[in-house]
Amino acid sequence: MVLERSKTTGRGWDGHLLMLHDSESERVSGLVAWIRRGLANNEKVICGQALAEPEERAVLPILSRHGMDVAALTAAGRLAIVPLPEFY
């Protein structure tokens, strides 16, 4: 869920922290929108991912297919994909 800017707290936080989904199509569309929102807010976006995630479910290829320059984002430290054991 993405909260509108008008819903920010006194400290400016708009709740952009965690994304949950019900289906694969919702996961992909939500993931892309969620990451774009974080980057637009100048946040560092950190995604946990299973070590043996198939290519069609892996975050970086999904973002690349949606026109994001993942090499530049990861090199700049704005996007990090973390293995689930390390993430948790």
- Element order: H for helix, E for strand: HEHHEH
Mean pLDDT value:
84
**Shape by Cα distribution:** globular
User: What can be said about the biggest beta sheet?
Assistant: 2 strands, parallel
Query: Gap between N and C termini, in Å?
Result: 22 Å
Let me know the number of strands.
2
Structural class: alpha+beta
Residue stretches low in confidence (pLDDT < 50, at least 5 long) are 1-6
Residues in β-strands, percent: 5-15%
Question: Could you state the oligomeric state of the chains shown?
Answer: single chain
Main attributes?
88 residues, alpha+beta, 4 helices
Helix and strand topology:
Elements: H1 24-40, E1 45-49, H2 59-65, H3 70-75, E2 79-83, H4 84-87
Parallel strand pairs: 1-2
Care to give the gist of this entry?
With 88 residues, the protein is an alpha+beta fold. Helix content is 39%, strand content 11%. The chain starts with 23 loop residues before the first helix and ends with a helix.
Written account of the structure:
With 88 residues, this protein is of the alpha+beta class. 39% of the residues lie in helices and 11% in strands. The chain has 4 helices and 2 strands; from the N terminus they run H-E-H-H-E-H. It has a two-stranded parallel sheet. The longest helix has 17 residues, at 24-40. It is globular.
